[in-house]
Amino acid sequence: MKKLEAIIRPEAFQTLRQNLDELGVKGLTVSEVAGCGQQKGQEGIFRGSRFEIKLYPKVKVEMVVEEQEVDPIINVITETCATNEVGDGKIFISTIDEVYRIRTGETGKAALI
Ligand SMILES: Nc1ncnc2c1ncn2[C@@H]1O[C@H](COP(=O)(O)OP(=O)(O)OP(=O)(O)O)[C@@H](O)[C@H]1O
Ligand SMILES: [Mg+2]
């Protein structure tokens, strides 16, 4: 099992949610977050300028899925969220050891779907 954490522009979220639903992604966790990347929150950097680090509002979407779903989800996220401007976001992928469904006690794949 893998976890995808996608940090995206807030305005991309509704379309992404719809496209993920069409792909069959059922379970997800969404948070409103603030962050900065390479540009440290600067929209444009010019030589010699002093700047303070600004945080931009972003949406974080977390999904735990089976391994074979990772590539199709990455494709949907990139197709939906790319504007090709800085700040489009990132996707972090990690391995999940176990999942429990609290109601039934199911674990692993059975607890995911
Ligand atoms: N290394 C990181 N660790 C944790 N969160 C990050 C990291 N890089 C980016 N983020 C998160 O992703 C958001 C969007 O980052 P952003 O798209 O600006 O990344 P970038 O690496 O600067 O890419 P780009 O050059 O396309 O802007 C940030 O606001 C922050 O919340
Ligand atoms: Mg950036």
From TrEMBL:
PROSITE patterns: PII_GLNB_CTER, PII_GLNB_DOM
UniProt-listed Pfam families: P-II
Domain of life assignment: Bacteria
Family: Belongs to the P(II) protein family.
Designated name of the protein: P-II family nitrogen regulator
Organism phylogeny: Bacteria, Bacillati, Bacillota, Bacilli, Bacillales
